[in-house]
Amino acid sequence: MTRLERAIVLGVAVISGAGVSGCGDLLGFEDWTAKPEGNGGEGGAGGADSGGVAGQGGASGSGGTAGLGGWNGAGGSAGNGGSAGQGGASGSGGTAGNGGAAGQGGAAGQGGASGGCGTCGALEQCWSGKLCVAKSVAVTGGYSIDATEVTRDQYAAWLAGAPSTSGQDARCSWNTDFTPSCEWPAGAKGNHPVVCVDWCDAFAYCRAVGKRLCGRIGGGENGWDNYANASLSQWHSACSSGGVNDYPYGDILEATTCNGYGAGKGVTVPVGTMTGCKSSVSGYGGVYDLSGNVWEWEDSCNGTATWTDSCRLRGGAFDAYGEGYLRCGYGPGNNRGSHAGDVGFRCCAP
User: Fold this and answer.
1) 73 partner at 20 to 30 Å CA-CA among 1, 108, 198, 210?
2) At what angle do helices 152-159 and 199-208 cross, to 10 degrees?
3) Can you list the residues of the chain whose pLDDT is less than 70?
4) Which string of b and e fits 23-52 if b means at least 16 CB within 10 Å?
Protein backbone atom coordinates (compact mmCIF):
# COMPACT_ATOMS: atom_id res chain seq x y z
CA MET A 1 0.00 0.00 0.00
CA THR A 2 1.48 3.42 -0.99
CA ARG A 3 1.75 6.33 1.42
CA LEU A 4 -0.95 8.21 -0.43
CA GLU A 5 -3.30 5.23 -0.06
CA ARG A 6 -2.50 5.00 3.62
CA ALA A 7 -3.11 8.74 3.96
CA ILE A 8 -6.54 8.34 2.36
CA VAL A 9 -7.43 5.49 4.70
CA LEU A 10 -6.21 7.32 7.76
CA GLY A 11 -7.50 10.76 6.82
CA VAL A 12 -3.81 11.82 6.78
CA ALA A 13 -3.52 13.58 10.11
CA VAL A 14 -6.23 11.81 12.03
CA ILE A 15 -4.97 10.45 15.30
CA SER A 16 -7.16 7.39 15.68
CA GLY A 17 -7.34 3.88 17.03
CA ALA A 18 -5.91 4.07 20.51
CA GLY A 19 -5.71 7.66 19.35
CA VAL A 20 -4.19 10.78 20.74
CA SER A 21 -6.57 13.02 22.57
CA GLY A 22 -5.42 16.56 22.24
CA CYS A 23 -3.86 16.23 18.81
CA GLY A 24 -7.10 15.59 17.02
CA ASP A 25 -7.13 19.25 16.05
CA LEU A 26 -4.87 18.28 13.18
CA LEU A 27 -7.72 16.84 11.12
CA GLY A 28 -7.47 18.14 7.59
CA PHE A 29 -3.70 18.21 7.04
CA GLU A 30 -3.22 17.51 3.36
CA ASP A 31 -0.98 14.74 2.10
CA TRP A 32 1.97 15.85 -0.01
CA THR A 33 5.29 14.72 -1.39
CA ALA A 34 8.36 16.53 -0.16
CA LYS A 35 11.14 17.29 -2.59
CA PRO A 36 14.59 16.67 -1.11
CA GLU A 37 17.20 19.35 -1.52
CA GLY A 38 19.45 19.11 -4.58
CA ASN A 39 23.16 18.34 -4.49
CA GLY A 40 26.12 18.73 -6.82
CA GLY A 41 27.70 16.08 -9.00
CA GLU A 42 30.41 13.59 -8.04
CA GLY A 43 33.85 15.09 -7.47
CA GLY A 44 37.26 13.53 -7.10
CA ALA A 45 39.37 13.15 -3.99
CA GLY A 46 42.10 15.50 -2.98
CA GLY A 47 43.86 16.61 0.16
CA ALA A 48 42.04 16.46 3.49
CA ASP A 49 39.69 19.22 4.63
CA SER A 50 41.47 22.41 3.60
CA GLY A 51 42.28 21.16 0.13
CA GLY A 52 45.64 20.20 -1.32
CA VAL A 53 47.55 22.91 -3.13
CA ALA A 54 47.85 22.17 -6.80
CA GLY A 55 51.17 21.60 -8.48
CA GLN A 56 52.69 24.35 -10.53
CA GLY A 57 52.28 24.10 -14.25
CA GLY A 58 54.96 24.00 -16.91
CA ALA A 59 56.77 26.86 -18.48
CA SER A 60 55.11 29.53 -20.58
CA GLY A 61 53.29 28.11 -23.53
CA SER A 62 53.37 24.50 -22.41
CA GLY A 63 51.00 24.61 -19.44
CA GLY A 64 51.61 22.15 -16.64
CA THR A 65 48.88 20.04 -15.07
CA ALA A 66 47.27 21.59 -11.99
CA GLY A 67 47.07 19.64 -8.75
CA LEU A 68 43.88 18.04 -7.47
CA GLY A 69 41.48 20.18 -5.46
CA GLY A 70 41.01 19.63 -1.69
CA TRP A 71 38.48 17.30 -0.03
CA ASN A 72 35.31 19.34 0.52
CA GLY A 73 36.54 21.32 -2.48
CA ALA A 74 34.56 23.37 -4.87
CA GLY A 75 35.35 22.77 -8.52
CA GLY A 76 38.92 23.55 -9.54
CA SER A 77 39.30 26.96 -11.11
CA ALA A 78 40.25 27.17 -14.76
CA GLY A 79 44.03 27.55 -14.80
CA ASN A 80 46.29 29.52 -17.05
CA GLY A 81 48.06 26.25 -17.52
CA GLY A 82 47.07 22.62 -17.37
CA SER A 83 43.82 21.10 -16.27
CA ALA A 84 42.33 22.54 -13.11
CA GLY A 85 41.78 20.42 -10.02
CA GLN A 86 38.84 18.15 -9.62
CA GLY A 87 36.14 19.13 -7.06
CA GLY A 88 35.96 17.43 -3.69
CA ALA A 89 33.16 15.45 -2.12
CA SER A 90 31.12 18.17 -0.44
CA GLY A 91 29.63 21.28 -1.97
CA SER A 92 30.89 23.37 0.96
CA GLY A 93 34.10 24.17 -0.82
CA GLY A 94 37.75 23.74 0.04
CA THR A 95 40.73 25.26 -1.84
CA ALA A 96 40.76 24.57 -5.55
CA GLY A 97 43.97 23.68 -7.40
CA ASN A 98 46.06 26.41 -8.97
CA GLY A 99 46.56 26.40 -12.70
CA GLY A 100 49.97 25.98 -14.31
CA ALA A 101 52.22 28.78 -15.47
CA ALA A 102 51.29 30.99 -18.37
CA GLY A 103 50.03 28.94 -21.26
CA GLN A 104 46.66 27.96 -22.58
CA GLY A 105 43.81 27.74 -20.11
CA GLY A 106 42.89 24.52 -18.39
CA ALA A 107 39.41 23.02 -18.12
CA ALA A 108 37.19 24.01 -15.23
CA GLY A 109 36.94 21.61 -12.32
CA GLN A 110 33.86 19.51 -11.62
CA GLY A 111 31.41 20.27 -8.85
CA GLY A 112 31.46 18.26 -5.64
CA ALA A 113 28.95 15.57 -4.80
CA SER A 114 26.64 15.76 -1.80
CA GLY A 115 28.02 14.52 1.47
CA GLY A 116 30.38 15.82 4.09
CA CYS A 117 29.22 17.46 7.26
CA GLY A 118 30.48 20.96 6.72
CA THR A 119 29.65 22.96 9.85
CA CYS A 120 27.12 21.31 12.17
CA GLY A 121 25.03 23.26 14.68
CA ALA A 122 25.62 23.53 18.42
CA LEU A 123 23.09 20.76 19.11
CA GLU A 124 24.36 18.57 16.26
CA GLN A 125 27.30 16.28 15.60
CA CYS A 126 28.89 14.90 12.46
CA TRP A 127 28.04 11.25 11.82
CA SER A 128 30.63 9.18 9.93
CA GLY A 129 31.92 12.25 8.09
CA LYS A 130 28.69 12.33 6.08
CA LEU A 131 25.70 13.91 7.83
CA CYS A 132 24.96 16.41 10.57
CA VAL A 133 22.66 14.62 13.02
CA ALA A 134 21.20 15.50 16.40
CA LYS A 135 23.79 15.47 19.18
CA SER A 136 23.69 12.34 21.35
CA VAL A 137 23.56 13.11 25.08
CA ALA A 138 24.65 10.42 27.54
CA VAL A 139 22.12 10.05 30.38
CA THR A 140 21.89 7.94 33.49
CA GLY A 141 21.04 4.36 32.57
CA GLY A 142 23.93 3.63 30.22
CA TYR A 143 22.52 5.00 26.96
CA SER A 144 22.32 8.23 24.98
CA ILE A 145 19.37 10.15 23.59
CA ASP A 146 19.22 12.91 20.98
CA ALA A 147 19.42 16.41 22.41
CA THR A 148 16.58 17.43 20.10
CA GLU A 149 13.97 16.04 17.80
CA VAL A 150 15.28 15.17 14.33
CA THR A 151 15.04 18.28 12.18
CA ARG A 152 13.84 18.83 8.63
CA ASP A 153 17.37 19.57 7.43
CA GLN A 154 18.81 16.46 9.07
CA TYR A 155 16.12 14.23 7.60
CA ALA A 156 16.31 15.90 4.16
CA ALA A 157 20.09 15.36 4.04
CA TRP A 158 19.52 11.64 4.60
CA LEU A 159 16.81 11.55 1.93
CA ALA A 160 19.14 13.27 -0.52
CA GLY A 161 21.23 10.10 -0.51
CA ALA A 162 18.22 8.17 -1.92
CA PRO A 163 18.07 5.55 0.86
CA SER A 164 16.62 2.24 -0.32
CA THR A 165 13.39 1.01 1.22
CA SER A 166 14.53 -2.59 0.79
CA GLY A 167 15.96 -4.39 3.79
CA GLN A 168 13.71 -2.62 6.30
CA ASP A 169 12.62 -4.24 9.53
CA ALA A 170 10.11 -7.03 8.81
CA ARG A 171 7.40 -4.96 10.48
CA CYS A 172 7.83 -2.38 7.72
CA SER A 173 7.81 -4.51 4.57
CA TRP A 174 4.83 -2.48 3.33
CA ASN A 175 6.68 0.86 3.56
CA THR A 176 7.74 1.99 0.09
CA ASP A 177 8.56 5.66 0.66
CA PHE A 178 10.47 7.60 3.33
CA THR A 179 9.38 11.02 2.08
CA PRO A 180 7.31 13.09 4.57
CA SER A 181 3.69 13.19 3.48
CA CYS A 182 3.09 16.83 4.43
CA GLU A 183 4.73 19.95 5.77
CA TRP A 184 3.58 21.82 8.83
CA PRO A 185 3.82 24.70 9.17
CA ALA A 186 4.30 25.32 5.47
CA GLY A 187 7.57 27.04 4.72
CA ALA A 188 9.10 26.45 8.15
CA LYS A 189 12.88 26.48 8.23
CA GLY A 190 15.00 23.38 8.38
CA ASN A 191 15.71 23.64 12.10
CA HIS A 192 12.08 22.79 12.91
CA PRO A 193 11.35 19.15 13.71
CA VAL A 194 10.53 16.93 10.75
CA VAL A 195 6.86 15.88 10.82
CA CYS A 196 4.48 13.74 8.76
CA VAL A 197 6.70 10.68 9.01
CA ASP A 198 5.38 7.29 10.07
CA TRP A 199 6.91 4.87 12.58
CA CYS A 200 8.85 2.99 9.90
CA ASP A 201 10.38 6.18 8.50
CA ALA A 202 11.60 7.09 11.99
CA PHE A 203 12.92 3.58 12.62
CA ALA A 204 14.81 3.51 9.30
CA TYR A 205 16.40 6.95 9.78
CA CYS A 206 17.68 6.19 13.27
CA ARG A 207 19.20 2.90 12.12
CA ALA A 208 20.77 4.54 9.06
CA VAL A 209 22.70 7.06 11.20
CA GLY A 210 24.02 4.49 13.64
CA LYS A 211 21.35 4.93 16.30
CA ARG A 212 17.94 3.40 17.00
CA LEU A 213 14.43 4.57 17.67
CA CYS A 214 14.18 4.96 21.46
CA GLY A 215 12.95 1.72 23.01
CA ARG A 216 13.90 -0.45 25.96
CA ILE A 217 16.91 0.35 28.15
CA GLY A 218 19.46 -2.30 27.33
CA GLY A 219 18.21 -2.83 23.78
CA GLY A 220 15.20 -3.88 21.76
CA GLU A 221 11.58 -2.82 21.75
CA ASN A 222 10.06 -1.43 24.93
CA GLY A 223 7.05 -3.45 26.08
CA TRP A 224 3.67 -1.95 25.26
CA ASP A 225 2.71 -1.71 28.94
CA ASN A 226 6.09 -0.32 30.06
CA TYR A 227 5.87 3.12 28.48
CA ALA A 228 5.79 4.89 31.88
CA ASN A 229 8.43 2.68 33.54
CA ALA A 230 11.62 4.73 34.01
CA SER A 231 13.70 1.62 34.61
CA LEU A 232 12.70 0.14 31.23
CA SER A 233 11.74 2.91 28.77
CA GLN A 234 14.61 5.00 27.40
CA TRP A 235 12.30 7.81 26.38
CA HIS A 236 10.39 7.95 29.66
CA SER A 237 13.52 7.77 31.80
CA ALA A 238 15.10 10.71 29.97
CA CYS A 239 11.91 12.79 30.12
CA SER A 240 11.18 12.14 33.80
CA SER A 241 14.82 12.26 34.96
CA GLY A 242 14.71 8.64 36.01
CA GLY A 243 11.14 8.80 37.31
CA VAL A 244 11.72 11.90 39.48
CA ASN A 245 9.62 14.45 37.56
CA ASP A 246 6.23 14.54 35.85
CA TYR A 247 7.63 17.01 33.27
CA PRO A 248 11.22 17.46 32.11
CA TYR A 249 11.63 20.56 34.29
CA GLY A 250 9.68 19.46 37.41
CA ASP A 251 6.37 18.23 38.82
CA ILE A 252 4.15 21.27 38.18
CA LEU A 253 3.02 22.25 34.69
CA GLU A 254 4.59 25.47 33.44
CA ALA A 255 2.47 26.39 30.46
CA THR A 256 5.05 28.51 28.64
CA THR A 257 8.23 26.54 29.43
CA CYS A 258 7.74 23.99 26.64
CA ASN A 259 5.91 24.39 23.33
CA GLY A 260 2.49 23.05 24.26
CA TYR A 261 -0.86 24.69 23.62
CA GLY A 262 -0.41 27.05 26.58
CA ALA A 263 2.74 28.55 25.05
CA GLY A 264 0.53 30.13 22.38
CA LYS A 265 2.81 29.35 19.43
CA GLY A 266 0.27 27.27 17.51
CA VAL A 267 3.03 25.69 15.39
CA THR A 268 6.37 23.97 15.80
CA VAL A 269 9.38 26.04 16.84
CA PRO A 270 13.06 25.46 16.02
CA VAL A 271 14.39 22.60 18.14
CA GLY A 272 16.14 23.51 21.39
CA THR A 273 14.93 27.12 21.41
CA MET A 274 12.59 26.65 24.40
CA THR A 275 15.68 26.66 26.60
CA GLY A 276 13.86 25.94 29.87
CA CYS A 277 12.29 22.79 28.46
CA LYS A 278 14.90 20.42 29.84
CA SER A 279 15.87 18.68 33.06
CA SER A 280 17.96 20.27 35.80
CA VAL A 281 18.60 16.88 37.43
CA SER A 282 22.22 15.70 37.27
CA GLY A 283 22.65 13.00 34.66
CA TYR A 284 19.71 14.11 32.52
CA GLY A 285 20.55 17.64 31.40
CA GLY A 286 20.98 18.91 27.86
CA VAL A 287 17.96 17.16 26.32
CA TYR A 288 15.30 19.54 24.95
CA ASP A 289 11.62 19.41 23.96
CA LEU A 290 10.71 16.05 25.49
CA SER A 291 7.45 17.81 26.33
CA GLY A 292 5.70 19.71 23.55
CA ASN A 293 6.73 20.78 20.03
CA VAL A 294 5.85 17.43 18.38
CA TRP A 295 4.74 13.99 19.48
CA GLU A 296 7.58 11.50 19.21
CA TRP A 297 7.42 7.90 18.03
CA GLU A 298 8.70 5.26 20.47
CA ASP A 299 9.79 1.71 19.68
CA SER A 300 6.88 0.32 21.69
CA CYS A 301 4.08 -1.33 19.74
CA ASN A 302 1.28 -3.81 20.42
CA GLY A 303 1.90 -6.04 17.39
CA THR A 304 4.42 -7.06 14.74
CA ALA A 305 2.22 -7.89 11.79
CA THR A 306 0.99 -4.87 9.80
CA TRP A 307 0.99 -1.11 9.41
CA THR A 308 -2.12 -1.00 11.59
CA ASP A 309 -0.24 -2.11 14.73
CA SER A 310 -0.51 0.60 17.38
CA CYS A 311 2.77 2.25 18.45
CA ARG A 312 3.37 4.68 21.30
CA LEU A 313 3.57 8.44 20.83
CA ARG A 314 5.30 10.45 23.55
CA GLY A 315 5.60 13.97 24.91
CA GLY A 316 2.69 15.95 23.49
CA ALA A 317 2.96 18.65 20.85
CA PHE A 318 2.40 22.33 20.12
CA ASP A 319 -1.36 21.69 19.93
CA ALA A 320 -1.59 19.51 23.08
CA TYR A 321 -4.03 21.18 25.45
CA GLY A 322 -3.94 20.55 29.19
CA GLU A 323 -1.33 19.22 31.55
CA GLY A 324 -2.12 15.54 31.00
CA TYR A 325 -1.03 15.40 27.37
CA LEU A 326 2.36 17.01 28.09
CA ARG A 327 3.32 14.71 30.97
CA CYS A 328 6.26 12.33 30.61
CA GLY A 329 4.03 9.45 31.71
CA TYR A 330 1.43 9.89 28.96
CA GLY A 331 1.77 7.52 26.01
CA PRO A 332 -1.14 7.15 23.61
CA GLY A 333 -0.84 4.98 20.53
CA ASN A 334 -1.45 5.37 16.81
CA ASN A 335 -1.11 3.16 13.76
CA ARG A 336 2.45 2.32 12.75
CA GLY A 337 1.71 3.62 9.26
CA SER A 338 0.06 6.91 10.28
CA HIS A 339 1.66 10.31 9.81
CA ALA A 340 0.55 13.75 10.95
CA GLY A 341 1.64 17.37 11.10
CA ASP A 342 2.38 17.21 14.82
CA VAL A 343 4.28 13.89 14.92
CA GLY A 344 8.07 13.51 14.64
CA PHE A 345 10.75 11.57 16.51
CA ARG A 346 14.23 11.46 18.05
CA CYS A 347 16.78 8.65 18.31
CA CYS A 348 18.64 6.85 21.07
CA ALA A 349 21.92 4.89 21.23
CA PRO A 350 22.75 2.13 21.81
Assistant:
1) 210
2) 80
3) 1-115
4) beebeebebbebebeebbeebbebbeeebb
* pLDDT, tens digit (0-9, with 9 covering 90-100), for 97-151: 333 333 333 333 333 334 589 999 999 999 999 999 999 999 999 999 999 999 9
Task: Check residue 344 and report its DSSP letter.
Answer: E
Which parts of the chain are beta strand (E)? 124-127, 131-134, 136-139, 143-146, 212-213, 295-301, 310-314, 333-335, 343-344, 347-349
Question: Is the pTM of the predicted complex or chain greater than 0.85?
Answer: no
Distance of CA 164 to the CA centre of its chain: 17
Phi first, then psi: give them for residue 227, nearest 5 degrees: -65, -25
Residue 46 near residue 86 (C-beta atoms within 8 A): yes
Strands 295-301 and 131-134: unpaired
pLDDT for 64 equals 32
- Helices assigned H by DSSP within 83-214: 152-159, 199-208
Query: Residues 210, 349: contact at Cβ < 8 Å?
Result: yes
> What residue type is assigned to position 177 of the chain?
D
Q: How far apart are CA 190 and CA 171, in angstroms?
A: 29
Which amino acid does the sequence have at 285? G
Residue 187: which residues within 8 A CB-CB, separation 6 or more? none
